[in-house]
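Still learning. Show one?

>
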Amino acid sequence: MVILPKLARFARAYPEIVLELTSSNDPVDLVAGEYDAGVQLGEFIQRDMIAIPVTKEMRLAVVGSPAYFEANPIPRRPQELKDHACIGFRFSNSLYRWEFEKSRKALTVSPQGPISFDDPDLVIQAVLDGVGIGTAMEETLRDLIAKGRLVQVLKDWCPSFPGYFLYYPSRRNQPAALAALIDTLRLSK
């Protein structure tokens, strides 16, 4: 969602640079892993890192398939999710708790359902297959929602949050390749 759309432009502009990418849903210690930089949601970046925004604010979407909602009522409040098959997303060795907010009232829900995954694409595939309700970044689901393959619910309860940032340790001598990557991924105004 962050790197791939800009990767072709980077490769054309810097053919001499070879990027080595590793993907993980879990927060990564760049120094211990000997990485030059990472891309992560802002809330998970350590305070001693330099962080550059690479996306706009984002929002989580709660979705179900039309077939699921033919057999189950559409939830109007997060508290009603307890009566639904919620597909969990495992993040950093724990089940991600769904966070909601409306009119200054914050609420978290631990999804209860038949299955959980550590891959957001599998969560959405299970939702499309009618297994239950799941969550993913709204931006990644726009086409599926527009085509009617997914039904978004609780939209007024899902707040936006700072999106993804490219982050790296502060160093006196920044590698030229990292500077080029920062320039390519930086969120343009």
Notes: The chain has two domains: 4-21+33-56+163-185, 58-161. The mean pLDDT is 90. The chain has six helices and twelve strands. The longest strand covers residues 58-64.
